[in-house]
Write a structure and sequence with these properties.
By secondary structure, the chain is α+β, with helices and mostly antiparallel strands. It has seven helices and five strands, in the order αββββααβαααα. The longest helix is centred in the last third of the chain and has 19 residues.
Length: 173
């Protein structure tokens, strides 16, 4: 109570918190997307040196340091965002901050064209992506699987051999 009752009131009056029906210890704003945390989603950090995108099918919750993406064909999108094609074409679309980190805010993703794929293609990517993530968790070698994903992405985007060679294999860094 030493904080001051007037500052805890939620009346919207001057020196008080904004008007809500909540108690002083509850979240001020309703979070309309709270159910999205229970869906399959992509989790990625706000700022990173690496370009890691994690396919979550275990209902993880994040804090304010991470973003989530929900929707359809999330498995394919995870593979695409971790692919050499994405890193080659769009790494410079994200501002570089001090120490070589990049800011992965939503506003920078809005301009990136992503192929629409069928549910069957998405399911094929789901198995591969989850296998890759499992291997990474167990500190197993993943380069072969990452290259397989790259080739599948290259095939979907109908890249020529010259384009594939130009892009090459870009490790997550």
């Amino acid at each position: 109570m030493s904080f001051g009752y007037d500052r805890l009131k939620q009346t919207g009056d001057k020196e008080a918190r904004k008007k809500t029906n909540n108690q002083w210890f509850e979240t001020q704003d309703s979070i309309g997307y709270w159910e999205d945390f229970s869906k399959q989603k992509i989790i990625y950090p706000n700022m990173t040196k690496y370009m890691p995108f994690y396919l979550d099918n275990k209902v993880f919750y994040t804090n304010q340091k991470c973003f989530i993406i929900t929707g359809s064909n999330i498995s394919f999108l995870t593979a695409f965002l971790n692919s050499s094609l994405f890193k080659f074409c769009f790494r410079d679309s994200f501002p570089e901050l001090q120490g070589g980190t990049r800011e992965l805010s939503k506003i920078f993703f809005d301009k990136i064209p992503v192929l629409q794929v069928s549910e069957m293609v998405n399911r094929n990517f789901e198995n591969i992506v989850l296998d890759l993530q499992n291997k990474k968790q167990n500190n197993s070698s993943t380069k072969q699987l990452e290259m397989e994903i790259d080739n599948l992405i290259f095939d979907l985007y109908k890249l020529t051999q010259a384009e594939r060679k130009e892009i090459g294999f870009i490790e997550i860094q």
